[in-house]
Amino acid sequence: MIKDLKKFKIETITGHSGKNPTQNHGIPAPPLYRTSTILSSNMKNYRNRTGRYTYGRNGTPTSDSLISSISNLYKAEGCVLAPSGMAAITIGLMSILKAKDHILLPDSVYGSTRRFVKEEFPRLEIEFDFYNSRDLNQLENLIKNNTKALYIESPGTYTFEIIDIKKVINICKKYNLKSLMDNTWATALFFNPLDFGVDVVIEAITKYISGHSDVMMGVVLGNDSNLMELQRWSKNSGNYVSPDDIYMALRGLRTLPLRLKKSSENSLKIAKFLEKKQHVKRVIHPALKQHPDHNIWKRDFKGASGIFAIEFEKNITEKEVDILADNCQIFGIGASWGGYSSLLSSMNVAENRNLKSSFIPSGQYMRIYAGTEDSKDLINDLNSGFEFNQSQISNGSNLGVSTTSLVPGLPSMFMGIPIAEYQRQLGQSLKKTFLTDEPVSIVIHRIGKPTLTINIARKSTVSDIKTKLNIPLDACFYWKGVNMGNENPIGYYVTEPILHLKLI
After folding, report:
1. Would you give the DSSP letter of residue 55?
2. Which CA distances in Å does 75 have to 6, 7, 152, 186, 297?
3. pTM here?
4. How far apart are CA 412 and CA 414, in angstroms?
5. What angle do CA 342, 413, 461 make, to 5 degrees?
6. Furthest-apart CA pair in the chain: how many Å?
7. What would the DSSP string read from start to end of 89-142?
């Protein structure tokens, strides 16, 4: 057993923390204690609560193993475990705040933190305001006589603003404020808030430490009086973490440096690929030089996490983003991150903001988490989402239908050119094909397989369509209720479906 692990590098700490083989028959893995009752040797010891372990909720050798391991990572005096990341945030806030106190939080804060503050603090008579994390000159103007604490989350959730933590801590010292920081994005490997003077540090073990998307847990760290308050609130509020979850978190901790390194490398490669991708307005990743806060990130952080975001051009619709995600095979669609599998998610960022900011996307938004898969496979998977049109539409060739035979001079479909331009060109081609001056209305759908709806002048008939678009009869079926007469108004699908024609 190594006595003083804090003096070693993080890779060594994660591999050896929490082990005590001399007390466990030479077994390196910490034992798994499942218990509620812990017996005392006599009644006197029971009355006095003598001994390190008195009740399952108050700690066991299993929980101590993880507590010591994470404390070593952050070089902290100690920490408390929580049944979720959000529970850890709650412990941190409530260990400091009481009725009539005031706290400042960044407007880019985690959505569940925002909801807890907005819904619960009024009932608890705790005041709060949100500040612009990129305009710290205005921060001091928000400080009141009853301001007790300042909350930090860097980078910001969803849009990845970097807070100048040195400036924030200087403000806290000037006004004698407590500081709390959610450090889930960076972990102790890439940033240690305690080294910067932060009082209370929060991390969702759910994410990188557990690393396998099968554990819900959080941790709150502190030193001196801050740790004592954390322990008090955690105990009094009945927070308890399952020993089985603790064991799995310990196992995940052993490979944390390897997984985080791979995830970080993958995210940067994907981000650079997406920078060059048509229809992407910007890639929001602090490690990219064009990120407005890149210099602050480079100064303070040792690395970048595997999660970032992209903003699409304004002409890209929500349905188009949905289909892009739906067409990916490796990237899953879901919340959370930090596991070995890559994920995509989307949301309306503006709904989680109180203040105006240039970081709030004006177009469609997608959050991307890069797992530990092969980077080329991940890039190809995303690329297939962007360019599904060519492969899927050409699949109609086995029915005797191709993108070029549908309409003479048919331009490239879907993502190849802006939709508005595509509609214009296709309209011109159709008017020429059918030798009509009637208006041609075009609507592009991306639900399921790519579908193109074209409204054609009423004088066109079934035979006109079949002849001029070169669609074989066996590749079509009629809508129920549509008159089947050859010269009557028509509406039918190509069976993939590729094309839906109907009268206007």
Report:
1. B
2. 6, 9, 20, 16, 22
3. 0.76
4. 7
5. 135
6. 102
7. HHHHHHTT--TT-EEEEETT--HHHHHHHHHHHHHHT-EEEEE-TT-GGGTGGG
Structure tokens at 170: 């200087």
Instruction: Write down the number of H helices and E strands in the chain.
Output: 17, 17
Task: For residue 211, give the 3-state DSSP assignment.
Answer: coil
The pLDDT tens digits of the residues spanning 269-278 come to 999 999 999 8
**Using N-to-C axis directions, what is the helix angle for 85-94 and 111-124, rounded to 10°?**
40
Domain segments of the chain as ranges = 5-254, 258-386, 391-503
The residue whose two tokens read 């040792």 is: 302
Q: In this structure, what DSSP letter does residue 37 have?
A: B
362-419 confidence digits (pLDDT tens): 999 999 999 999 999 999 999 888 764 333 333 332 222 223 333 333 333 334 445 4
Say how many CA atoms lie within 13 Å of 478 toward its Cβ.
13
Closest CA to 243 of 447, 29, 442: 29
CATH number at 5-254 = 3.40.640.10
Contacts of 396 (CB under 8 A, 6+ apart): 402, 403, 475, 494, 496, 498
Cα 157 to Cα 113, 165, 200, 367, 490: the distances in Å are 10, 16, 19, 10, 51
Identify which of 4, 190, 183 has the alpha carbon closest to the alpha carbon of residue 79. Answer: 183
Burial of 486 (0-12, 13-18, 19+ CB in 10 A): exposed
Tell me which architecture the domain covering 258-386 has in CATH: Alpha-Beta Complex (3.90)
Rounded Cα gap, residues 378 and 395, in angstroms:
23
- Among 409, 399, 376, 366, smallest CA distance to 471 is for 399
Q: Which helix (H) or strand (E) holds 226?
A: helix 224-236
Contact 199, 221 (CB under 8 A): no
**Residue 10 and residue 18: Cα distance in Å, rounded?**
14
One-letter amino acid for residue 406 of the chain: L
Cα torsion at 141, 145, 146, 152 (round to 10°)? 30
